[in-house]
Amino acid sequence: MTQIRSLLWRPSVRAALPIFILMRVITAVAAFWISTYYAPTIDWANQPIYNLHEVAFTTPPPLRSWLEPWYRWDTGWYVHIAYEGYSTLDGSIIFAPLYPFTMKVLAPLLGGDYLLAGLVVSNLCCFLMLVLFYELVAREFGADKAQLTLWLYMVYPASFYFFAAYTESLFMVLVLGAWLAVQDRRYVLGGLLALLSSLTRSQGWTLALPFALIAFIEQAPNVSRNWTGLQQLIRYHLQQPVATLRRAFAVIGGVIGTLVYFEGIRLAQLGDVAAEYEGPWRTQIRMPWESVAHIVDGVIGGKLNNFDVANLLAFFFVLLVILLAIRQLRPAYWLYVLGSLVYILMRNYDLYYLHGMVRYAVHLFPAFIALALLLSNKRLLTLFFIALAVGLQVWLVTLFAAWNWVS
């Protein structure tokens, strides 16, 4: 009991809990309200991918009415994979396996309800993610900025996905856990968590860039920035091979996870993930500069729709706050953001520009540290941003629950 009490009184827990509860209540009420009073024009629940409603979603009323608004879009794919497994015919292999696996394990303990299992996993991970995020920021910038960072992170309009049966919470708790582990020189743990992050979302490999900088340069002895210093750095790592291997595992853990996912699907004769993206999912791999040229052409030609504008705004929001606060951020932070943005630019969906960027921004956690640094001591501007962001998030939640595509 004493240990539990001391855990609950940790600054990170006390900071995370009210933010988690408030935003969880706001999003739950918004989703319930719109699904109660608004009927979508298309009965998406009867589309093939959502036909498990009656067998995999077993919670009875009245709780069922609060859960049902979260059975939307990609959630249907995760429920399908957890309940029936991957198929070679339906495009399901583009979804990495770890999140639906957690649903499959937990569902039998929750009356066989796979949606509820996904929501429990996401919400538990969301709270733990906030605790870890606070710890990370507080170490470097202090408690006040850590608290502000959590508020800015959770009011961001697309942060409601942390509560949904999507991969965002699980992915971010693994990313932040890996980051803290590497900073604490627990390289094997960091590599394992990075590997698991890639089994949740394939872009976990982008952790290799910042982890290489942290493990091999920042945590090595200070050396001069010239050829002699580089030789000293190489000699230092070669003189302790076991420690160097641990550092290397932290760096390549995310890469290994991505390769395990892609090769595992292929070896199981389920298909090729890259080919599946290019086929039914209409997503091609492009060089980043080709995507930039494509976006510029769309802007000049007036081809952007509302989704494209929202994605561009999210992209420039991340880029702008990172650039404005770049001198206050360690290079590892903006290196992670840079690698992630390159990854996003390499994925081209032929119907939208920067498809999904509104949601993908929540993966770029350093942007919200940067935003907190920029808004620190600017009370009125901070309150304005929070009020505007909460309003936008409520609006997006209602769109999502009403079967409108958000991101």
Main attributes of the structure:
407 residues, 3 domains, 20 helices, 2 strands, 67% helix
What is the SS-derived class?
Answer: mainly alpha
Query: How is the main sheet built?
Result: 2 strands, antiparallel
Strand content: under 5%
* Shape by Cα distribution: globular
The CA-CA distance between the termini, in Å, is 43 Å
The domain count comes to 3
Radius of gyration: 22 Å
Average pLDDT value? 89
How many helices?
20
How many β-strand stretches? 2
Return residue spans where pLDDT drops below 50 for at least 5 consecutive residues.
Answer: none
Trace the largest sheet across and list its strands.
1-2
> Helicity, in percent?
55-70%
- Give the ordered list of helices and strands: HHHHHHHHHHHHHHEHHHEHHH
Structure description:
With 407 residues, the chain is mainly alpha-helical. The protein has three domains: 194 residues, no CATH class; 102 residues, no CATH class; 94 residues, no CATH class. The protein has 20 helices and two strands. It has a two-stranded antiparallel sheet with strand order 1-2. Helix 7 packs antiparallel against helix 8 and helix 10 runs parallel beside helix 13. The chain is globular, with a radius of gyration of 22 Å. The two termini are 43 Å apart.
